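Hello K.,

You asked for the raw outputs rather than the summary table, so here they are, unedited. I folded two proteins back to back in the same session to keep the settings identical. This is the first:
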Amino acid sequence: MAAATATIKQTPVNNSAGGHGWPRKTTPGQTVDGVKFTTNQLLTINRPINLYPLTNYTFGTKEPLFEKDPSVPARFQRMREEFEKIGMRRSVEGVLLVHEHGLPHVLLLQLGTTFFKLPGGELIAGEDEVEGLKRLLTETLGRQDGIKQDWIVEDTIGNWWRPNFEPPQYPYIPPHITKPKEHKRLFLVQLGEKGK
């Protein structure tokens, strides 16, 4: 089957006058995701992304996935303990897109009977984000016959920050927060034309 091509275009609000909103124009000398801007450039993504039909892929079954913690309070207690030892938690998630009936679909993992999430998870201390995401994708979605899966991790498409040991996350660090508790980065993962 032929690939559908989707174009992602993200046009920022012109906030050169210092107004609020996101995304905004960069200012000379501003650093965004490690890239230093020399002019007032727009933060724009405008390129095709290949989406293939869901029927191009086969899905096996694995042992059920469950959360590490029995409850939300237990999860935040574990996060507190880890924060004291290693600092801010770093996690990554992959956005995998396919199309079915002419519409784009995001593939999600099902945990238990009622919870769905993007594939990914916590990084090991000092681990590179892209390599960590490839490791996590292989652990959760990889083949079980020993054939290595080549994951194509592309653009960062989102950053989320957890300011406290509580559920809310934000696409920015609130100004009064000096030590966020978690940084979650979302990456676009380009699937091959066929699932081998």
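The second followed immediately with the same parameters:
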Amino acid sequence: MACHVLSEMSPGGSLMSTTSETSMQHLVSSSLQAEVKLQYNSLSELLRTLLVLLSCQDTILRRKMVRIGQSLERYRDVKLQQFRSRLAMEDAHLANHLVEMLDSALTKYRTWLEKKSASRISS
């Protein structure tokens, strides 16, 4: 049953027949598409590394985790901000998901920092 519902809700399914068939290719320029892909690839690599390191116990890996957290903050403050400022008003929504992913990752990083600080204090 669940598989059937998912297939009906997927593009091309009967429940999606009223949605627009317009793809991103027709809505934004190819240079903007390339920039969006670049931003996603860059952020994805940082997020992948962060998620691998979240469960680390090794001191060296913890230091790397701090560097990754700082890199995420720099990415937000520099690269993502530059990207958002270059977007036209009608294309500003293209950065929303990037911002949400980054905010979520930074929240996880800060939680990790707080736990590490609390464990050092109680030790």
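The chain has five helices and no strands.

Happy to rerun anything if the numbers look odd on your end.

Regards,
P.
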